[in-house]
Specification:
This protein has nine helices and 19 strands. By secondary structure, the chain is α/β, with parallel strands linked by helices. The two termini are 53 Å apart. Bound molecules: manganese (II) ion. Manganese (II) ion (MN) binds next to loops.
Amino acid sequence: MKKLTIIHTADWHLGTSYVRFPDLAEQLRTEQLEMLARMTGLCRDKEIDLLLIAGDLFDTASPPPGLVREVRDLLEQISTTQILISPGNHDPASPDSPWLQEQWPGHVHIFTTDYTFVELPNLQTRVYGTAFRSGAVRSSLLPDQPEPLDPEWLNILLIHGERVTAGQGSAYHPISSDWLTRSDFDYIALGHIHQPEQPQPLRPAGPRAAYSGAPAARGFDEQEAAGLLCLELTLRPAEQRGGRPFEIEWQVSQLPVASRRFLSAEIDISDCSSQSAIRDQILAVVGETADWRRHAWKIRLTGIRQPEITPSLVWLQHHMKQDLFYLAISDYSEQAIDLEQLLTEHSLAGAFVRQIAGSQSDWRSLSEDQQAILRIGLQAFSTEVTFNDPA
Ligand SMILES: [Mn+2]
């Protein structure tokens, strides 16, 4: 019986510019390297045999030399882990890329050519792969048909690109789903899609495939970072004549490495009668999340606000900047409407309200449509329509 432990990861985008967070960009980039150090620490502690990096490790084709050296030094320290890298569209293996320019240690195998494989006899494993060599790849980098694979080996495909169905194209290396399903790989380690997947068999007793997803979110558009995909394989000897000499037992888990999350919350401010009450309400909601101070938060104020209060986003930003790592706040709350007063008003707004509400002076007796028409209409009468969405 042989045990094999594998970490599959991709899409680190080291050196990201973080244009949406100019004040935090440098810190966030430093934290990316801390996460990478956490991963190499895990490789050491868990005695990981194989580290599969399915592309876009760097955010650009020519990352700063200092960053490349930091990455090389970290990977160098885990010489008992075999590391395989298949460059992606963000970090293609172009002639001036670090993949071809840097001296990488012997246990780091980088695919820089056409489809080929790396043989790791100690692990009874062959890893097949290829590389983006420029930022766009519009046709498949795989052989026309899946080739028969030697069943004596554990066969892995490591590749970056977009899984497509027949007839579908992509500028980010179209990988035919059908091709993958017909292949005889044991595992297909994919990179490019940042949303993590659970490895699924593509057909009964067929290859398992997954996008590992990005190890951490880099903004509010990526909220579900799961970490690293960890595969523990037990190879049990099998006595099938003419068949494979082993059977594989799979155990799959996620290893988190991110230290921060990018989270969104809606805060109903209907009951708030002051700025500090709004602030307390925000803290009450975000405070339900563990380690809430260390996360970046995107807050939307909602609800029907009381007549005496207009939320000041500047005040809230100023008074909350020490509470949270990052705060983006926008106001979607709506002004309460005093229907009784408006119905008697001799103004255009009054006439409009009488037209929509008739003689009903109780807001709650209006239909949802009437309420929406009145809200939007009265907002248009007001000159103080503000829209503030930091996205
Ligand atoms: Mn990509």
